[in-house]
Amino acid sequence: MKHSFIIATHNQRKARQIEEVLQFYHYNGQMYTTKLPQQQFPPEATISYRENAIGKAVFISRQLPTDLIIADDSGLELVAFPNRYGVQTARELAVEVPNGQLNNYLIHLVAGKSRQFSMKTTIALAVGGHVKKIGYGELTGTIADKERGQNSTGFDRIFIPAGEKRTLAEMERAQRFSYLHRARAVKNLVAQLENAR
């Protein structure tokens, strides 16, 4: 029997993507608010992807001690700006790009500079307030000079994986999932669960 996970995030877009990835690998997932509609997260730390993911997973798993709780933390790292973003990606970009036009902003930010990027994800599994497994995923590549593709949204329209010429949004789902940092982290995590059986 495949596992069913509770996803500890208040970001609905992220939750939907994780649900889609889990379904792709034949698992089930649902956002924690389906069981804890009023629960809010404590302020997120800025130590590391790993600590942030663990903090969210453990926090919700204490409220739902019999469920398998997963939480991730992700960040963008740019070769051209090694001291920006990373663990602080969401917070920094929210301040820098209040209009939400993130793709255009990043395209212009790296214009004339290195276009290389890395997207990293750490995903933690917690049960009863204790961490059980940690999964990791990373996507490296280059930022396109314009948005391309209609098969996905967000950064997928400007991220070209290393060794590819197309953006993620120009790929079909199976190929796109083989590259997505979050999908790779989920795959790594569930592989550990399968191997532990």
From TrEMBL:
Q: Which UniProt keywords apply?
A: Hydrolase
Q: Which CDD domains does the annotation name?
A: HAM1 (cd00515)
SUPFAM superfamilies in alphabetical order: ITPase-like (SSF52972)
Q: Which domain of life is it from?
A: Bacteria
Cite the InterPro entries for this sequence. ITPase-like_fam, RdgB/HAM1
Query: What Pfam families does the entry give?
Result: Ham1p_like
**Which family would the database say this protein is a member of?**
Belongs to the HAM1 NTPase family.
Question: What name goes with this protein?
Answer: Non-canonical purine NTP pyrophosphatase
